[in-house]
Amino acid sequence: MSAQANAETANHHGPGTGTLEHVCVVHALKPDRGIGVTAIDKRAVPGPVKVGKIGLYADVQADRVHHGGFDQAVYAYSEAEAQRWALELVREIPAGYFGENLRVSSRATTDAIVGERWRIGRDVVVEVTLPRTPCSTFARHVREDDWVARFTERGDVGCYLRVVRVGKIRAGDSIEVVSRPAHGVSVRDVFTGPTPGQAQAMLDEQAATGVPLPEKILAKLRQLGFAE
């Protein structure tokens, strides 16, 4: 049995489940002096929403280089992380306010393992790929001083997802981890900078399974001198 198959068998029930609390799509494009327009203003929507390979139907990726494409098709943020910000900022952080497509509970996003796969509802399967990197557009949207630095320091950045199997999702769907790589490197680890041991573990698993790491992670490993 392959390492990936072992992980799927071992983790089918092991890592626990979560709940999709809200599904969010763009409410309106906002003018932004940095990039022209931004699709960061997302709001929760009722009913089933189709999920395709490049994201949710009725959603928009205004900047597919930095916030879109297959490896960043969907952005998830946890309710617990949002509530920590709500307490600090002394205001509500409604679903979609951070530009997320999925607001989830009882499911780690920043501490999810890179490459782990979630089944959402009956049909949709997504794969954890990358951390969110805060930018000046995000700061202007939130309207907080030094937001990029504060968000970076906290490190609760959420995770991007690649769509493995398309289908429909809706608020209230269960989220089940159906596979998890053995390397154990989290989205938070990638965001803060992996150790040499973590970098090597990811590269070793890539070589063993033939499943490529997201190109942005490989570029970061090359930048840090861990990969050619």
Automatic annotation (TrEMBL):
Residues 43-178 form the MOSC domain. InterPro entries: Benzoxazolinone_Detox_Enz, MoCF_Sase_C, Pyrv_Knase-like_insert_dom_sf. It comes from the Bacteria. It holds the Pfam family MOSC. PANTHER family: PROTEIN YIIM (PTHR30212). This is MOSC domain-containing protein YiiM. It comes from Paeniglutamicibacter kerguelensis. The lineage of its organism: Bacteria, Bacillati, Actinomycetota, Actinomycetes, Micrococcales.
